[in-house]
Amino acid sequence: METVLTDSFTVLILLVSSSSTPDRFIVPGGGLEPDEDAETAAIREVMEEAGVRGSLVRCLGVFENAERRHRTQVFVLQVEELLEEWDDSKSIGRQRKWFTVPNALEELMVSKPVQCNYVQLLANKTAGPTSLSPTGVEDGNAAVSMNNPNASSSHGLHLTGSNNQASPAPAAEQTTT
C-alpha cells in the first residue's frame, strides 16, 4: 500500500490513470447503473477505479451540462481503506496517484480540463465559502481528496454519476461512461 506523508492541512487529490492514455491522470468515474442512485454509484466507482473504500459524508455540489443533459453530483467521502489491488488495477493496469491541488489542476488541464472544476470547487470549499459556479461538466466522474490520508478520520471527495432521469435526453444521448 502506498504511503502518503502530509501535514494535517495539506489537501491531496487522488487521480487515476486514464484507460485511453495511461500516462495521463484523471478523476475516476462512471455513470449510474440501472436503478442505482448517485450515492451508491459514487461508492461503487471509487472502489472499482481507485481501490478506495469509504462512506459518504455530504454532497459537495451538482454539476450540470444542459447541452448534453447530464448531471454529476459531487460527494465528500470519508476514506476508510486503500486497497493494494482493485478491479481496474488488475484488469487494465490502472494506477492511482496523489496530487496536491495545484498539481492536480495542472495535470487535469492537460488530461481532462473539464474536471478542473471539481478540484477548484473542493479547494474553494476547503478554504471557505465558494463563488464557483459549476458548469459544463461531463457525466460520471469521481475523485478522492484527503486532508491527511494517514489520519484515522480522513475525508475525501467523490464525484460521480450522470442522472439523466431528471432531464431526459434522446436515447442516443443517454449513454454513460
From TrEMBL:
Region (Disordered): 127-177
GO molecular function per UniProt: bis(5'-adenosyl)-hexaphosphatase activity; bis(5'-adenosyl)-pentaphosphatase activity; diphosphoinositol-polyphosphate diphosphatase activity; endopolyphosphatase activity; metal ion binding
InterPro entries: DDP-like_NUDIX (IPR047198), NUDIX_hydrolase-like_dom_sf (IPR015797), NUDIX_hydrolase_CS (IPR020084), NUDIX_hydrolase_dom (IPR000086)
Domain of life, source organism: Eukaryota
Entry GO terms, CC: cytoplasm; nucleus
EC top class, as a word: hydrolase
Sequence ranges of Polar residues compositional bias: 144-177
Pfam families: NUDIX
The keyword Ribosomal protein appears for this protein: no
Keywords, ordered alphabetically: Cytoplasm, Hydrolase, Magnesium, Metal-binding
Main subcellular location of this protein, as a coarse class: cytoplasm
Domain Nudix hydrolase residues, every copy: 1-123
The enzyme's E.C. designation: 3.6.1.52
GO biological process: adenosine 5'-(hexahydrogen pentaphosphate) catabolic process; diadenosine hexaphosphate catabolic process; diadenosine pentaphosphate catabolic process; diphosphoinositol polyphosphate metabolic process
Catalytically driven reaction(s): diphospho-myo-inositol polyphosphate + H2O = myo-inositol polyphosphate + phosphate
Subcellular location: Cytoplasm
CDD domains xref list: NUDIX_DIPP2_like_Nudt4
Family membership: Belongs to the Nudix hydrolase family. DIPP subfamily.
Protein name (record): diphosphoinositol-polyphosphate diphosphatase
Source species of the chain: Tropilaelaps mercedesae
